[in-house]
């Protein structure tokens, strides 16, 4: 990187810190005109576009950066955020997962940001799909209600005209209205029960690991009193260092104790909320 490009990059960084995103973009663009091989300038500009909510431009810059470095963690991370805002949740989840793997390979430390982003994307996807199902159910209920009412009117009309092409032999004219009222009540009750079962679906934070932010399957507790998912914590101890990720206290694998009480709570929650298995 030449001194001129470095100076433009530094100017852009200063402007970014001042929240002057448009001017920062201008500096980064000038730097890239002079040297388009500096991937960090692409990701810096992409972050400016994120702040300005210009999602397509975020994706463009991240892709240009990834053309030069497939393991550029920030590029995958920023792409994931842009995809979330475009309601492209599968693409976002893929980007965040790749970012996490890239950070592990390169031994980069992003705290919990990457895992939190992945969890938020999964939650947004679940909410999006749930809202779609709710809309479809409302349409179905409206259609079925209309069909029942239309059928009742046809039967009443047939009784009045004496036609037998619609009225069944056992139809009691005096009970016809009551019969269809019961049908409608049953239909409405069925959809009301669906609404009751569709309470806000969310996994309580205390059931989720402090590293992956996903619901734990094998919770263990450290001497500091913090509960983690065993696989995530053991990977941290192996890759990052022998210390508690939250308290930073020294920690060795043999000090981990199965949190049987938490495991029982999680199993009970999953039994009553089977959807959480895929959360």
Quickly list its features.
single chain, mainly alpha, 3-stranded antiparallel beta sheet, 10 helices, flat
Describe what this molecule looks like in 3D.
The protein is an all-alpha fold and 279 residues long. It has ten helices and three strands. Strands 2-1-3 form a three-stranded antiparallel β-sheet. Helix 1 runs antiparallel to helix 2. The longest helix has 49 residues, at 113-161.
**Average pLDDT over all residues:** 89
What share of the residues does DSSP label as strand, in percent?
under 5%
| Radius of gyration of CA atoms, rounded to a whole number | 29 Å
SSE run:
HHHHHHHHEEHEH
Topology, number of strands = 3
Main sheet attributes: strand count, strand direction, barrel closure: 3 strands, antiparallel
- By secondary-structure content and strand pairing, the structural class works out as mainly alpha
For the largest beta sheet, what order do the strands appear in spatially?
Answer: 2-1-3
State the helical fraction.
55-70%
Distance between the termini: 44 Å
Poorly predicted tracts of residues: none
- Note the total helix count: 10
Q: What general outline do the C-alpha atoms trace?
A: flat
